[in-house]
Amino acid sequence: MEIVQKEKVTALKIASDLLTIGAIKLSKENPFTWSSGWKSPIYCDNRLSLSYPEIRNYIKTALSQAIKEKYPQAEAIAGVATAGIPQGALVAEELGLPFLYVRSKAKGHGMTNLIEGKVTPEQKVVVIEDLVSTGGSSLKASADLRAAEFNVLGMMAIFTYGFPIADKNFQEAGIELTCLSDYSTMLEKALEMNYINADDIESLKEWRQDPANWQG
């Protein structure tokens, strides 16, 4: 099986699993409100997958395999707090690599750490995130690792909304992003599984292009 075909199979499988367990919820008529104030027809909480051993193991294996193929030189795995921590720890265990994680802000007491785990300058690290929207928190974690003199090889995530602004942000930061599944693949699977109707597709695609001004 060619790599591209294998990646498509993985993307469809993960989209199906996340829809089935309710980790991804779709509601065009009654959209969700994000903290940014954006109205969204989708709510995604990949942490729910941790409660399903078979799905959790599939995601762990898919992330690990992707890292072995793209970054065989990786020397450590770093999770982005908070949702990237359990996924990152599972992957590090699978690969037999050291694990650390990056806080959203420095700890307010004790050692006031921003990075938890052994800091090894020049260590080649792959960053694990569970979900990418605009990429802000993910790229901040990568910048913090670079500031601590880690060699950030790239970032892996379970799911991305595929916002154009995210693509731009990762490109400008010089961070390669690889996601197991994405919004377009999820819409394809949701239509097949009758979670949405064909009439909904155009509006749902428009949301991804301009989420700040989407009206449903």
How is this structure best described in words?
It is a single chain. This protein is of the alpha/beta class and 216 residues long. Helix content is 41%, strand content 21%. It is built from seven helices and ten strands. The protein has helices at residues 3-20, 53-70, 84-95, 136-147, 164-173, 183-192, 201-209, and strands at 24-26, 32-33, 39-40, 42-44, 76-80, 99-102, 115-116, 124-132, 151-160, 177-182. A six-stranded mixed β-sheet has the order 7-6-5-8-9-10. Strands 1-4 form a two-stranded antiparallel sheet. It has a two-stranded antiparallel ribbon with strand order 2-3. A hairpin with a 5-residue loop joins β2 (32-33) and β3. α1 packs across α6 (183-192), α2 crosses α3 and α6 (183-192) runs antiparallel to α7 (201-209). The radius of gyration is 17 Å and the shape is globular. It starts with a helix and ends in a 7-residue tail after the last helix. The mean pLDDT is 93.
